[in-house]
């Protein structure tokens, strides 16, 4: 009897076309993600420009080769694939790419964790049912399902156990400080903790506050050996910085602390600025150590993507409730108190530097607007444009009048407080005190506080005073150097990080308050200090070092310009200035002392 053997048929060409289109979309998306991460800005722009033409060409070629879809499901699949690619391109053009990328990562995290937690439960039920039926293959898929559930259980146990170990290793609230032995070797050791400013960014390792302090001490006491243990790390808040003290093996004689700038950028999962990326089920997810660990890291990155960019960017939202900010300030006070108690118990002298920043020429990144009416917000933005135009025309009184009108309605609007301060500064005379007040309020109400708020400065002063620590009040010290008393870009590269001269001034001030036994009676003690030029030469600050620092500063300013809700023209202009200086330094067209942004040739900083 003849039987007909059915030969397997190849998948329809149109289905292969859908699959190839999907692979093309996935590959393109991966290329875009990699390009946005690693390419320079011009190359990113080129990639964005070519994407629509690449997508159109791929659609034409795939359709020509495999034919048009014939079923509704195939048309739907192709539509969704191309819509996803178009949405990706729109997000790049409108500046919301980072927001939606972070949203996708957060969504994926929650889906993955839900699956990993649910699969073991499903496996238990499936295993129990298999035992009840008495045979493994009561359904064809049961063995595979049990295997998947078992693998998920192993992964779950491994992930959660590792997350618990990592969490326990983290320093809670500035406690668990090390007990250090005394090194009886005659070396005077200085330890420094803090963030990028204390590290010496962007000049490190050649230059910085701590480096200058040690150079001055070595100059004054040439017979004494000094050692700097700079534990500062860019981006560290106080809790993280204090945790790095565990790297010490012996007790330092002096601990230099510069803290306050980075307190906002940690523990961001509790900050209201991320409520757009908060999820209703997070209270349940927080029972998972893996979720807490990964989500905290995502929140640290989400701050740069939490508010999509768009035409109405000037009027922002509140950083967090006042009660939450108060809890964070209290936590900072507790951590700082624990550090000072530890130092006092070990007989370590502490020098606390009150952090300073550019108040008068660095605009707020984001502003708070209480009025939610779109038309009113648009009117406020129109007024902002008008104020900017008046200031460009040097019509300072008219600009101030408009600012005051907005501030009567929105007294917490940081951008208008800053612009009012600019106008008052230019008007001078009786307006000078108001300018200082406006600038301080603008900094303290910035909803993206990369600069230390006054409340944190006061906490530092209070705790240092309570423990009789030496205090370097950096804001007051810098104000005294200039006749107008404004701390501005004459002292800072990017609003936060001090320039060469400012590092020298602050480092010398630190050296002045560090006690050394028998310093006054020692005949080898040098009564004079290093000059700035001598210190630069001694620390080998060359044009190449400056060029490298300025290249880094360009990246920082570009980053701030991306975050800035209002406009990035001023920051972009300053970034271009540093790029030009770096080119000139690398080409040998300029020496260190000739760089205008460092104000090295002006003894009083004016």
Automatic annotation (TrEMBL):
User: Looking at the record's lineage, which domain of life comes first?
Assistant: Bacteria
Question: Where are the annotated coiled coils located?
Answer: none
Q: Give GO MF terms, alphabetically.
A: hydrolase activity, acting on ester bonds
Q: Which residues cross the membrane?
A: 20-39, 45-64, 76-97, 103-128, 140-159
Keywords recorded for this protein, A-Z: Membrane, Transmembrane, Transmembrane helix
Signal peptide positions (record)? none
Q: Which InterPro entries match?
A: SGNH_hydro_sf
Q: What is this protein called?
A: SGNH hydrolase-type esterase domain-containing protein
Name its species: Fuerstiella marisgermanici
Its taxonomic path starts at: Bacteria, Pseudomonadati, Planctomycetota, Planctomycetia, Planctomycetales
